[in-house]
Amino acid sequence: MALKLPIPRRNSVPGVLASFEHIDAATDAIRTLRAKGHRDLTVYTSHPNHEVEEAVGHTNSPVRLFTLLGGLTGCTAGFAMTIWMSRDWPVLVGGKGIAAIPPYVVIAFELTILMGALLTLFSVGLLSVLKAGRRIAYDPRFSDDRIGVFVAARGSDVTVVERYLRDAGAVEVSHAS
Amino acid sequence: MTTISQPPAIPEDEQLEFAPQLRMTQTHADVTRDVVATLETPSRGYYMLLFGAVGLFLVGLGTFVILLKDGLGHAGYNPPVMWSVYITTFVFWVGIGHAGTLISAILFLFRSPWRTAVYRATEAMTVFAVMTAGLFPIIHIGRQWIFYWLLPYPNQRYLWPNFKSPLIWDVFAISTYLTVSTCFLIFGLIPDVAAVRDKARGWRKFIYGQLSLGWQGTDTQWRHYSRAYLYLAALATPLVLSVHSVVSWDFASSVVPGWHGTIFAPYFVAGAIYSGIGMVLTLLIPLRKALRIEHMITDYHFDNLSKLTLLTGTILFYAYAMEYFVAWYSGNTFEQMTFYRRAFGPMWWAGWTMIICNAFVSQLLWFRKIRTNLTALFIISIFINIGMWFERYVIIVSSLANDYVPWAWDQMNPTWADWGILAGSFGWFGMYFLLFARTFPIVAIQEIKEMIPMPRRRAGGGHH
Q: Looking at the structure, do residues A20 and A48 belong to the same domain, yes or no?
């Protein structure tokens, strides 16, 4: 019997997948589609591209909030741990106070960075998992030199979307159901 | 809206000027093809290097087993010198790591486009160098099986670590550095592993598919990814400066003559980057040939790396001069004696090796002819590696050997146990680096692509 993992069922999304060779053609297509009310778009690029980012109209990623949260957690944890542990078994060392702040800054600094970095990575994972329930058509050439645009569409919309994509300069268009 | 998650757009006609290394690889498909080709069956030279590295590692492992069985008595520890080759080598390897983070994180924040072709290799070097360094405090403590006593965990002895000790700061700094730089390396690899997955077949496709964590390069993925990468770079930058500062405080916060100086933190950080770039040169010059990526890592990169070496080498020159000046100007007899003995005492040969290899040899890089002559650079990089190992050896051993009470002075002579572990560390490091270069893209595919303009239908349709 096949092993069943508790992964949410990934439903394929019906729609149109277009492949572009030219960056300006792809951004034209994205702009036209958005203007015509097709907002469920997925754009594939082999590298981060700010023309695509502008055309899709993304705002700043919420990752930064997690970085801040992680940093603050690490800093608090660093001071709290060192101060509490020193007071839990008080020993005078090097003529400094039991809970001496200056040496503990080093520990708090390192933990600020550690927690900030770990929570940043965690947030990317979390934000990606939130969208993992949908399976969207993909082509291996999108990680090479093609730009992919997937538009969720069904019924009569499919032909309309296909025309927009071809008019903008898509070199290949296929249907996903 | 333009966000700062990507480097500012460089006008297309200037792009190639910024990145002359890309003249040979004109299209995005070329980049994927050439980098994926580095993962194909390697040459005989590669296997010989790997064989050598594993052999050296086994020498180190054998030495370590004897140390485990008999104790640290085999090493050259001799009162008053109770820190010697192992601590020297620890500082050496931590330092090597620093150049990788400088190139991958600090130059990323400074928007230096030349870093893209070399940063993956240097970042891998960082991770493996810190992995190597981390072994040495454990080897040095003698009873290796209780190294976890350094960590703050509830225990039956009701004791906590002494957080006022720089040695505990080190535990936190090194473990944070290893964790964060490993995360940074793996995170940067995800899109590249996905690109390899899409070119691979059979079981390789399956393995790279699992490692790419479902990466497809969608706009949403890049949106979070670019942001996160920026923040990781921003966190790694103060981290790398703090790590070697903390290592330097292992020495500077004690009252041993020759160690107790405020100059130590910047002096160690500059030295670390200097030694690290030396190691980058030692690794990349043969590697680019072995992997046939000469058209991606070119003279242009070596010229820039040499300029960084020159800068940090000159800072080091200043720091050496300043150490001698302060020793004289302080009027402190012990400090003066320590520095006199570094130049003219029984360890004069080590002292002069350090000064010649670091302060003087680096000055050759003022000449452009030398900066672009790879044979000369390779030889210089070997001098840098030797010089920087001796710098730490001189600082640690000469200061401990000649402290306040002359009747307690004694010399320290490294034994086979010291050299065995030192050789083993090079094998351990080389083994991981070679296996990495064979398994993962050693040149960052997606970042190189970012620098090549995408084809346009409309001529001259530049952005902005």
A: yes
Residue A3 has pLDDT above 60, yes or no: no
Same domain, yes or no, for A39 and A68? no
B375 close to A (CB below 8 A): no
Pair (A35, A87) in one structural domain: no
Q: Are B317 and B274 in contact (CB under 8 A)?
A: no
Domain borders along chain B are 12-451
CATH class, range B12-451: mainly alpha
The answer to whether residue A89 sits within a structural domain is yes
Number of domains chain A contains: 2
Is B67 in contact with B74 (CB distance < 8 Å)? yes
Largest CA distance in chain B: 83
The verdict on residue A112 lying in a domain is yes
- In this structure, are strands A15-20 and A172-176 parallel, antiparallel, or unpaired? antiparallel
Question: Measured between alpha carbons, how far is B136 from B138 in angstroms, rounded to an integer?
Answer: 5
| Residue A120 C-alpha, separation from nearest chain B C-alpha, in angstroms | 6
Do A110 and A74 fall into the same domain? yes
Paired residues of A149 in beta bridges: A18, A43
pLDDT tens-digit profile of B176-205? Answer: 999 999 999 999 999 999 999 988 888 888
pTM of the model: 0.90
Q: Which two tokens stand for residue A175?
A: 């249907």
Host domain of residue A158: 12-56+136-176
In angstroms, the CA B130 to CA B182 distance is: 10
Q: Looking at CA atoms only, how far is residue B447 from chain A in angstroms?
A: 7
Residue type, B352: W
Q: What digits encode the pLDDT tens for the residues B77-91? A: 888 898 999 999 999
**Which residues in chain A have their CB less than 8 angstroms from residue B183's CB?**
117-118, 121
Contact B176 A44 (CB under 8 A): no
Give the helix/strand (H/E) hosting A134: strand A134-135
Q: Is residue A7 assigned to a domain?
A: no
* B456 close to A (CB below 8 A): yes
Same domain, A125 and A82: yes
Same domain, A70 and A112: yes
Answer whether residue A70 is part of any domain: yes
How far apart, in whole angstroms, are the C-alpha atoms of residue A63 and residue B232?
11
**Is the interface score ipTM higher than 0.90?**
no
Q: Which segments of A36-150 does DSSP mark as H helices, in order? A: 50-56, 63-88, 101-129
CB A74 within 8 A of CB A115: yes
The verdict on a CB contact (< 8 Å) between B236 and A144 is no
3-state SS, residue A149: strand
pLDDT tens digit string along B9-51?
444 444 444 455 555 557 888 888 888 888 887 778 888 889 9
